[in-house]
Amino acid sequence: xxxxxxxxxxxxxxxxxxxxxxxxxxxxxxxxxxxxxxxxxxxxxxxxxxxxxxxxxxxxxxxxxxxxxxxxxxxxxxxxxxxxxxxxxxxxxxxxxxxxxxxxxxxxxxxxxxxxxxxxxxxx
Length: 124
Hints:
By secondary structure, the chain is α+β, with helices and mostly antiparallel strands. The chain has helices spanning 2-20, 60-64; strands at residues 28-30, 33-35, 43-45, 79-83, 89-93, 96-97, 119-121.
């Protein structure tokens, strides 16, 4: 009977984890910086205002700096979502929209870090 209680408790804990942090599981720290599930480095843009709910990088900018899309139904703190000009949802970290860099060709590359002094890896 005790083993059954442990099994039920473990299943319940797994359920809470997977539904409460559905999206955060696709981002991870790799060598001290945030990366997506494929290991590609994630960036923030200084021209974005934290907590504004908007992205300052659209159109041509978004081709070079693709937004990290929201793919889950729930986002757990410190993550949130912003609505882009085209109506799509973008993942944000501590209120700042997150991006990938088109010139990062393989996992772990950080070619976009400090680009134009306004793009930065997420390290905290």
